[in-house]
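Take a minute with the sequence and fold tokens given here and flag any structure token that looks odd. Thanks in advance.
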Amino acid sequence: MAFFHYDGGVVADQATGRPLMGQPVRIFDEETDAPIQAYREGQPVTLVTGAHGLIPQFQTEDTTRRVRIEVGPVRLRQWSQEMIGLTIDAAQSLRFIAVQNLLPRPGYEDFPLGWQYYGAGGGKVADETLTVTGSGALTGVGVYTQVGYRFRAVAGHRYYVHTRASTPDSGAASISVYLSDGTTTVNVTGSAVAVASPAPGMFYTVSGLITAPEAWDGKDIQFYQRVNWPTPAEQNGRRASFQPATILDLTKAYGEGSEPDRGHLDALVASSQGGYVDGLSRLFDQRKQVTPLPVGGASNRQVELRFDDGYTNNLTNAAPVMARHGFRGVIYPGTHPTAWLGGSHGGHPIMNAAQLLSIHSDFGWEVGSHTRDHSDANNGDPYVWVENARQACQDLVDIGLPWPSAFAYPNGGRNVVTDRAVYRLHDTCGLTGHPSLTPIRKGKPAFFTGWATINGVTGTAADIERAKTYVLESARRGEIPVLGFHGITDGAPDADYHLSKAHFSELMDWLAAQGFSTVLPSERTPHNMLKDPGFESRTFGYPWVAGAGWTRTRSTAAGHTGFMGADLASGGTGELYQNTSVMPGQSLRVRVRFGARTVSGGTLAVVATPQGPTGAAVGSSVTIGTASTGASESDVTGLVTVPSGASVLRVAVVPSSFVGSARVVHAALHRSDLYDPLA
């Protein structure tokens, strides 16, 4: 026989406050109202209050989860210790799912924003359940969304997918759940038929583990869930319902080779969603043990940890300390293969290429750019500096790291020329300055970020306390604090910009105790809604689509000899465009920068076209402007308001009877109310 355990307590007369001594104690199942037997050490007992009104600890059979205790007129209610533990696990699971879920709007709170219809139809949300109605020429009724915002799949990573689908209508053929990059599709259960002949009115859990194929590497993935009918005519007017969905990158969260099995994840997600496993059985009734991630991976209070220059002790000292709490950081090293990597700075060793790969692959850190050799943007020719910054990105790619999404200015020096180049190359830029000048609010797009530095030699205690105040106050305001470090030394630091391992450990332990998790720059919402805005990191075909006449080539212009761009030859007829998800009512700024161009005939226009979920235009296209002949770089820019019913915006460069030549060097799309780094 299995037992649940209950803490003791003290009961007193509610009128006099005196303990109720020697009183019989009656126990009832609070959920069934039935009287139940109390046990102690597995043996049945009759409970009586002690000399001070004490009710000793007791047990019940595990069929009872919550009891009502009656002593005379006094009634107390109490959950078992086991249920309290499961509730804590459920809360931790909920926090973990909320932070790690790759779906941007998993509960459909503001449907249809972020979600698009599979085919035509209508939909509404009630009690976190989305119900859509089919119409049109497809046999399926459902929805799909881009997984995360700026999420890019990693070949070989293991992903867990979980959703619950239903239809209130009879005659459905199947339920399908799958992910696709537009070409390569992977079914979550290994079959296009996740559930065959679903019964009307019953929710079915569909979950599975998939491994991202090579074809997905670096691409944005879409998540589809739908209910299928035998013919298009039969699906008209039929309905499909979906409850909150979850997609987790297990390799990123747990580490390669340590990914949990499907059963563990099913229980983890079920716990976060109220304890239901398959719509029929409750998790609590199955007594499943759920092991959440460490606190560092389960909190919704986030902090960014930044490390400049690339010191070897970031790998040997900082990373292991942070890993104890599931923390990850972003490191900004110099990248020159001989002038920086493997060398030293201020007497401290700098990581080599293999060590940078290790901190990325073994500890999950992000590697950003800090120029090739810690070059100050305000020293010398800014266009030479720009070439340095571009080559630093290529250095990281050449050693096997991803194109860096983040950049940090060495010494804080910057100017208009370098800001434009950094915005072209990266999604986010760290400034050297007080963080209150550039706070990062959760969910709000941001390009520039500030940081609070933690100094090592003087005022260590005061600096750490100041950092704690900054972190807590930022979290209270709904912002993400950024803590900046340089070297993490074994003993007392020899420069005021380093910190000892002991003090660093103290700060990391404090962050974990406060329930913080870490966030990386690539996981924040980027300012520019267009991907690969400078055509640097990917070939045409994704995310940029290029029609006839366009080529992706490196510039030969002085000062920009390494930069990529999109070139249009005379007579070219194809569009250069990219589609991105938007929200109705948004006011957005479109900005396309042209390099040297000659327009001898026809036009070359920048056009924004709002679209619905199926690709059909919504309202009229907006011509932002046209390019004219010029030798120096020039912008075509303007505003567009997303109309009701649109969820996608196509930003395109459109030739019409074009004669001449032109080069596009950069494109941007962002909310018009945000600071414009290119203005």
